[in-house]
């Protein structure tokens, strides 16, 4: 079966939560894949006025996706731009910061802990038998001080992960995306894409790849990676004459900022295991139908997985699946049940042109 199981793992890990502005449900399922490489983060109280949600679709291993789920929101929160209200810049810098943090002894050690069991064993044996120098053992984890050790020259992981993140503060929604996970807003029943799938055949992506010395073969970067942007994948980021934004593969995210309005019903963040099977509008329509009878948002996510799961191995519906569903509350009565009255609509295939793109 190669990378697939003989029977799918359909057990689901689900969670629900809320704050005064929104409620959310999330779920993940391994499916037919031999291992689970997706990860997610849900922090309805990143601070007293801000929520953070993210999905991370790993490839080549689960270490990078889990690293992003553990550390990306911390970097956003601590960045100086965040402190002055510049959410877009703090997200942009934090995406790039992930690649920096995964290098060196400390990055290697953390990836070993978060990765597969054999990597974890190696991390225990090689990464913890020495003592950090210079009092670094007392540093806070998010300070990420330099550590000396047997992997001090580690140049970063060759596995990688997409990252699609939504930060909500008041009526402002900021989405940062690198890769082909996707964020979709339902506005009066119409699917509005708030991210772009970074595939190698897109004109801007292809241009960067070729200028950086890479090539595209059968729709894949250098014949292997079917994404043009990702965190990790350091083998594609070794050109010392180019900035990080112009490497063959880059973690540089697209940033979209919009103002939410009363017509906005819910937001979906999902890995491509969902989008391989359903268009943005099809998923929005399906969710609206489920919300007529199902109030638990994680259960709606689970039903999406059941609908997408392939009946036999091979083709669409065989990937890991992770999804976060965020429903906005009525600001005049946040404790009231949320109702949806969608209007018929057509598919929106690109990010809405009225969305404000921040730098």
Protein architecture, described:
The protein has 359 residues and is α+β, with helices and mostly antiparallel strands. The protein has a domain at 14-62 and 157-329: 4-Layer Sandwich (Phosphatase 2c, domain 1). 26% of the residues lie in helices and 28% in strands. It is built from nine helices and 16 strands. It has helices at 63-78, 80-83, 87-101, 104-114, 117-127, 203-211, 272-275, 280-291, 297-308, and strands at residues 4-18, 22-33, 38-47, 50-59, 160-161, 163-169, 172-178, 182-187, 190-193, 216-217, 220-221, 231-232, 254-259, 264-270, 321-328, 356-357. The strands form three sheets. Strands 3, 4, 5, 6, 7, 12, 13 and 16 form an eight-stranded antiparallel beta sheet that branches. A six-stranded antiparallel beta sheet has the order 1-2-15-14-8-9. The longest helix is centred in the N-terminal third of the chain and has 16 residues, at 63-78. The radius of gyration is 20 Å and the shape is globular. The protein starts with a strand and ends with a strand.
Q: Regarding CATH, which class of the domain at 14-62 and 157-329?
A: Alpha Beta
Based on secondary structure, the structural category is alpha+beta
Shape: globular
Named at the architecture level, the CATH assignment of the domain at 14-62 and 157-329 is: 4-Layer Sandwich
Termini separation (Å)? 44 Å
Query: What's the gyration radius in Å?
Result: 20 Å
Q: Would you count the extended β strands for me?
A: 16
